[in-house]
Specification:
499 residues; mainly beta; 11-stranded antiparallel β-sheet; 5-stranded mixed β-sheet; 6 helices
């Protein structure tokens, strides 16, 4: 359920011109420098594998958009939200790092675009997302990426469920067995209304060894400053929340939606023979988010009319709510009472084995993905909308604490023909086993659960004898399995085949 004001909207990041000038690479250290001829003007050829064959993007008879790693760097595209601005028909709704950002292709989407009440590890239900050969949603920073492919749907045959609108594939760079190299990048940028600078730093190392082995590692860290202020936060003590009816009890905070991301990726490549190779990849990503990226402009009217108390001034001492304020004064104000911090971890382990039999190429793609999320969310407005006895409690505040974990194993075998004939074909088998578990606890401090609660109901206490104020518990535990056999036959009726 969604308790958010439908007029609330997430605040977009606006980069200042000065920040754009300094948001550039600070270092690139190639280990080997090759002699270069005089520069020539030529178009870069992008080879994609969207059809499960390596082909030039100009030769594929399907609607596809692709950006190479070089183009991503040149255009300073660091994430999918920025990438979507360059792809016709692709929309990514930026709801901040705490909430999932729906991915929409050709306008196909089954849910509304209001920010989700609870964060979830999904980009929607109509666009399949892949990291390498593994189907998984991850809000990935585009660091050391070979290319990004966007296929407009439907793509159910080769990419399965959730691909009615299409598919988005992130293809990281593979280890290079030819040369050792090191690259370092950094950028600084500022965001309107944020008090601090934001920055990101990346380091990549490629190391070949033993002729047919190579390792590629990437480390990245991002620290993005927040710009959303929360003047109505209620501090939490050992025995619950203080009375929000008293303006002096507010504990306002500024820039609560700060965000830190740590990424590590390591890939080990083994060229077994001229016809076969194996690659093992591990990707780890941890996000720490201070609060929800949402604003409430309607509260300006309430402040002017005197229906909301004017809380203490936070930070610099300048009034947060000037007399006669306009909605623009609340573009960076979140009126929730509880800080909605969140922490999540994504882990991907992928093993790809490719073998060329001449007439066809066999691919085995094994993936293990793990998602863990811990956080809390403000439930005050949601429960008040139920119109039970909550509204009669003058100091009512509620929040939910959640722990979620999803583990998934996928296996795909795919055989793709390679003969240059009139007919080509693809056949394969896919299997997925997914386990989901969650613990959700809803707290109503002072309303229910303590010996002096508003309802007079005594509930559980902690080890110190303090009431826990638990009002609702939920422990969903689901297991999902699926398998599929897929195939495709194509005919190449072109003029040159009849000459």
């Amino acid at each position: 359920m969604n308790s958010r004001d439908p007029k609330s909207r997430p605040r977009a990041i606006r980069m200042k011109p000065v920040a754009a000038a300094v948001a550039t690479a600070v270092g690139s250290i190639p280990a080997v420098v090759l002699a270069q001829d005089a520069p020539t003007t030529m178009l870069e050829e992008i080879v994609v594998t969207a059809t499960r064959r390596a082909e030039s993007v100009q030769d594929i008879p399907i609607n596809i958009s692709a950006f190479s790693g070089g183009q991503l760097e040149q255009q300073r595209i660091y994430n999918l939200r920025q990438f979507a601005r360059y792809v016709p028909g692709l929309t990514v709704v930026d709801q901040g790092p705490r909430a999932a950002s729906p991915i929409i292709i050709r306008g196909l989407h089954v849910d509304d675009l209001t920010a989700a009440e609870a964060p979830f590890n999904s980009g929607g239900d109509t666009v399949a997302t892949y990291f390498g050969e593994v189907p998984v949603y991850i809000d990935l920073d585009l660091v050391d990426i070979d290319r990004v492919e966007v296929l407009r749907g439907p793509q159910g045959t080769l990419f399965g469920a959730n691909s009615l609108g299409g598919a988005v594939r992130f293809l990281p760079k593979k280890p290079d067995t030819e040369a050792f190299s090191v690259e370092a990048h950094g950028r600084f940028y500022s965001i309107d209304d944020a008090d601090d600078l934001s920055y990101q730093a990346d380091l990549m190392v490629n190391a070949p060894f033993a002729d047919n082995w190579a390792f590629r590692g990437v480390v990245s860290y991002r620290d993005q400053a927040g710009w959303i202020d929360q003047p109505f936060l209620i501090p939490q003590s050992d025995v619950g929340f203080v009375n929000p009816e008293d303006p002096a009890s507010f504990a306002p905070q500024e820039d609560t939606n700060d965000w830190q991301r740590t990424t590590f990726r390591g890939s080990l490549l083994w060229d077994i023979t001229e016809n076969g190779s194996a690659q093992l990849t591990y990707n780890y990503q941890k996000d720490e988010i201070g609060g929800r990226q949402v604003n409430h402009t309607d509260h300006c009217t309430a402040v002017v009319n005197g229906t909301l108390p004017n809380p203490p001034v936070a930070g610099s001492g300048a009034p947060l709510f000037p007399a006669g304020c306009s909605p623009s004064d609340f573009e960076t104000v979140n009126a929730n009472r509880v800080l909605e911090a969140n922490e999540r971890e994504n882990q991907i382990i992928e093993l790809d084995i490719i073998w060329d039999f001449g007439f066809a190429e066999l691919t085995s793609a094994t993936g293990f993905t793990s998602f863990e999320e811990t956080g809390q969310r403000d439930q005050t407005d949601l429960l008040l909308n139920f119109e039970y006895t909550y509204g009669t409690y003058p100091a009512f505040t509620a929040f939910t604490s959640e722990v979620e974990e999803t583990d998934r194993i996928t296996q795909e075998f795919r055989l793709v023909s390679q003969t240059d004939g009139i007919v080509d074909w693809i056949g394969g088998f896919f299997y997925r086993d997914e386990d989901f578990s969650q613990t959700s606890r809803e707290f109503t401090p002072g309303y229910i659960g303590g010996p002096t609660s508003f309802l007079g109901i005594t509930g559980p206490v902690d080890s110190s004898g303090n009431p826990i104020f638990v009002e609702y518990l939920q422990f969903p535990d689901d297991e999902f399995k699926e398998w599929a056999i897929f195939g495709e036959i194509g005919s190449n009726f072109t003029t040159d085949r009849f000459n």
